[in-house]
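hey m, so remember when u said the tokens were messed up on ur end? i reran from scratch. heres the input so u can diff it against urs
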Amino acid sequence: MKNFPIDDFQTIVDDVLIRHRSILDILTKLQESTAKINRAVAKSATYCGCIRIHGERQEIPMDVSYSQLKSYMKDHVDGEFCDICKEKIEHELSTNFFYLTALCNVFDINIEEMLAKYNEQLKTLGKYGLL
């Protein structure tokens, strides 16, 4: 589904969000959806076992420059989500994006414009913009 119109999604979110329209509802639902993402990832490792998480210290040589650092960093995940876990994660991420979009709507922030600005910042500053 390439070139999904984010503006259309933002409009639909504004139309369908009725019950949890308060900023307090949106903030707490966003936090709840983030917790559900964390839980789904954890269950993929602990219940399903389709992925393994190895939380260990990153081993980085002392003489590595910041621009070389990426090649030494690990994501601590082995394996891939099974179809069921992937579907669950996608659902939870979608819900999270829904409430993030609702938050943008409350503050009259256009997501597409916001992401375009951030994209320009990333292109300009690259990895150094994230320090």
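this time it looks ok to me. The longest strand covers residues 51-53. if urs says something different then somethings off w ur setup not the seq
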